[in-house]
Amino acid sequence: MPDHDDKQVTIGVLLAGGGSRRAGVDKRFLVLEGRTLLHRNLAFLHELFPTVALSLAPGQRLDLGDAAGLGPTEVLSDEWPGSSPLAGIATALHRYDAPVFALAVDIAFPSRAASDRVLAAFAGHDIAVPAVDDHHQPLFAVYGTGCLAPMTAMLEAGEQRIVDVLPRVRVANVPFASDALFHSINTMDEYRAARELAQQGRGASAAGEGARAEAATASRASSDLPERSPAAPGGSPEAPGRPPALVAIVGKSDSGKTTLIEKLVPELVRLGLRVGTVKHDAHSFEIDHPGKDSWRHGQSGAQAYVIASRERLAYIARLDGELPLTDIARRYFAGFDLVVAEGYKRTAPHRVEIFRRDAGHEAPLCGPGEALALVTDAPFDHEHLFGLDEARGAAQFLAARLDTLRRY
């Protein structure tokens, strides 16, 4: 039997090298309670451990976005093929020669109370792992250096199942009454369930009060939370007091701004974002139909009027001057995750530019450092460069920077 490891656990490893095949979308960028799963779980580890590592499959690169500001995060490339959690944990043990706490990137609501219990049980063992009845939760567990030899032998034999290492080492089974604390997102149905929990306040309750929550039902866990304020129509009640993230798609005439938004919005929605859009019009416009009852309301002198049905609502107001984009986002998109504007090239706080060679322009609109990213088919230099058909990558780029995009 391997010798057990009594060292204090000071290293957290986020396992993020999977292929997201069942979800059909890169789940690392799925947004829950205003942040990507990648950001949320890196933040969880940075609060617990002085050393944090990100485990990726060989050859993978990952845009940390706002999560880069959490603190130093070392990126570890798996030393074994297969993109398995086992390879990621073994690589971390080999790199640090010290015990590590391993957390999967797709765990929706990591609990400090639960991690404290698991860490406390590690002394005198090679692994400390939550156990619900006979089922283990190996992706929220502590692994000591005594695991490295059997893990290496398994990987070299082509074995990838992490639970198969348990019979070969000394295991502390940490009992939990429910697996709700370890809710992982492998499919979009599971992601939607996690969003529902977050909207009801039950996710935060589970994460913050893990030890007590395991003995309570889900409905009881949510009953102590304050009721959430209503969001704007179509908005999210997850964080009602937080302004929506805001970005403008800008570019010179005929660059394809609307076309880019048509491609970008579906990709943002696939990541779970509730998206609103704003189109800037430099001229006067009439959106209502002359002669209709609602139009007559406006003609009667009403300063504002609403057209409402079961499916849609339109608010029309007369203005004495143009509203700033930031005021529009705050006032009309409360509860939304992200507002994407078209235009506002000089006043938008955050911009992504599109430049298309066939539009007949010689240079981009924005100067150096003015645009967060550049979408183009031209050979320009930019820190964050995307092709015209890389809307998915651009959407992940924005999702990774929601905190930045909320600053205005």
Write a concise synopsis of the structure shown.
This protein has 408 residues and is α/β, with parallel strands linked by helices. Helices cover 28% and strands 19% of the residues.
User: Going by CATH, what is the homologous superfamily of the largest domain?
Assistant: Spore Coat Polysaccharide Biosynthesis Protein SpsA, Chain A
> What share of residues is helical?
25-40%
Biggest sheet layout:
8 strands, mixed
Output the CATH topology of the largest domain: Spore Coat Polysaccharide Biosynthesis Protein SpsA, Chain A
**Could you name the CATH class of the largest domain?**
Alpha Beta
Number of domains: 2
CATH architecture of the largest domain: Alpha-Beta Complex
Low-confidence regions: 209-230
The gyration radius over C-alpha positions equals: 25 Å
Counted by DSSP, the helix tally is 13
What overall geometry do the principal axes of the alpha carbons give? elongated
Q: Secondary-structure map with pairings?
A:
Layout: E1 11-15, E2 31-32, E3 35-36, H1 37-48, E4 51-56, E5 74-77, H2 85-96, E6 100-104, H3 112-120, E7 127-132, E8 135-136, E9 140-143, H4 148-156, E10 171-175, H5 188-199, H6 202-208, H7 210-213, H8 218-223, E11 245-250, H9 257-270, E12 275-279, H10 293-299, E13 304-308, E14 313-317, H11 325-332, E15 338-342, E16 351-355, E17 373-376, E18 385-386, H12 391-399, H13 402-405
Parallel strand pairs: 1-4, 1-6, 4-5, 7-10, 11-15, 11-16, 12-15, 16-17, 17-18
Antiparallel strand pairs: 2-3, 6-9, 7-8, 7-9, 13-14
